[in-house]
């Protein structure tokens, strides 16, 4: 409120006003996920990250995952899948891809874009054990880029907690309670939100900065 509207107000006053006006936050729905485990994984990495969700610099630790969104044409439900990579230093979304299918290309193209935009990065790269991430070709892609692979343990979503947290933020703020009736509107919502999240959404744990502000401050000081 102070940063974007010039209104100096504390949390308790906002809470009182919200209660008086019966303004409530959107609840987080149960997450069934869309991870498809590989029947015969070709490569399993250790959980090197081990829930150490802090980093000393950008491009030191990246998290990744895939989530799904629904839209409706009449009563027929359709899906799109969002693959994204999150940086643990500044919590920015490094790269993302939206597609109709949850397949290898979705994940491969996401890491390719992240590497293209950050050619000098050699992060620890953490994911769950979805079939794309346990693919030998994917591991070779990371290895050739000088990226170390790490994976969550089986059925331990908290091992990838900040990535799961980003999905929750996105869906609570822009998706839950809405009914999208065409793919284009849904995709635009996701794209607009990621731009807003990276460039305008202030985070207290970043010192009341946006992810990109945190990122740029580091680069200027380096």
Please supply descriptive tags for the structure shown above:
about 220 residues, alpha/beta, Nucleotidyltransferase, domain 5, five-stranded mixed β-sheet, 7 helices
Judged by helices, strands and strand pairing, the structural class is: alpha/beta
CATH superfamily grouping:
Ribonuclease H-like superfamily/Ribonuclease H
Whole-number average pLDDT?
A: 92
Strands side by side in the biggest sheet: 3-2-1-4-5
C-alpha end-to-end distance: 31 Å
What pattern of helices and strands is seen along the backbone? HHEEEHEHEHHH
CATH architecture: 2-Layer Sandwich
Q: What's the structural domain tally? A: 1
Parts with pLDDT < 50 across at least 5 consecutive residues:
none
Work out the number of β strands: 5
Characterize the overall form: globular
Total helical segments? 7
Helix content: 25-40%
The level-1 CATH class: Alpha Beta
CATH topology: Nucleotidyltransferase, domain 5
Q: Mind describing the biggest β-sheet?
A: 5 strands, mixed
Radius of gyration: 19 Å
Strand content: 15-25%
What does this entry look like structurally?
With 222 residues, the protein is α/β, with parallel strands linked by helices. The chain is globular. It has a five-stranded mixed beta sheet, sandwiched between helices. α4 links the parallel β4 and β5 (148-151). Helix content is 36%, strand content 18%. The chain starts with a helix and ends with a helix. The protein has a single domain, classed as 2-Layer Sandwich (Nucleotidyltransferase, domain 5), CATH 3.30.420.
